[in-house]
Amino acid sequence: MILAKKALPKNVTTAGRVADVKAALDWLKAHGTVRYRDQLATRFAIHTDKAFGTTMVDVKKLAKTIGKDHELAEVLWKTGWHEAKALATFVADPNLTTPALMDAWCADFSNWADCDTACFVLFDKTQHALAKVKQWAKREPEFERRAAFALLASCALHDKKGPDEPYIALLPLCERAASDERNFVKKAVSWALRSLGGRSAVLNGHVVALSTRLAASGVSSERWIGRDVLRDITRPLIATRVKKRDLRRKAVVAKAKAKAERQ
Question: Do residues 138 and 74 share a domain?
Fold first, then answer.
């Protein structure tokens, strides 16, 4: 069964907050299908009791019509609907996203999609991101601990100009978490290490050394992570990508230095 489609609203944030949320939920429901909703668990391992079966493509379409609306984002998240939570991450304002809100949403993650979307779309754009990596790595619930490493991976991928030192300092967190046998944690640790290993030549060297130790471990999760990371970051493609990124970063630094000298 495919639910009837509705045209994209020009703006769902014009008739008061309650009406805004209802309009957004109605639109998401109208663009959902039973087939896709059922596939969330069976095909994508996304387990949720509240889903319309709306694709991420359609969620992004709606987000574009809304723009940034932080108040709406907070209310959307609280509805508990899977697609509304995803929409919330797109319309939330990183500059208004507080550590308290990040902690609250993290504690509410019920599947990897909630976790990864929030980290990749919103949390990594805040000034609190690396501090939350340190804090959440100590949490025990599976998706809260995953959030630490999904967020670290997101920062490593999106931070094009920042220094390597803050990331090098976080590598011990990856090593400690590598012994966690839970599927969504160990996969996030691997993701974080692979992202770090592709960021620069310096980080690549650190990650190769760490992953080599893990690959030789007697602990199965550590061994799996080590091998998974080494298989990825030792490829010629990654070496070429790292070299290009280092050259771009040096060019940016040189340009900034020259600008400062002229002033």
Answer: no
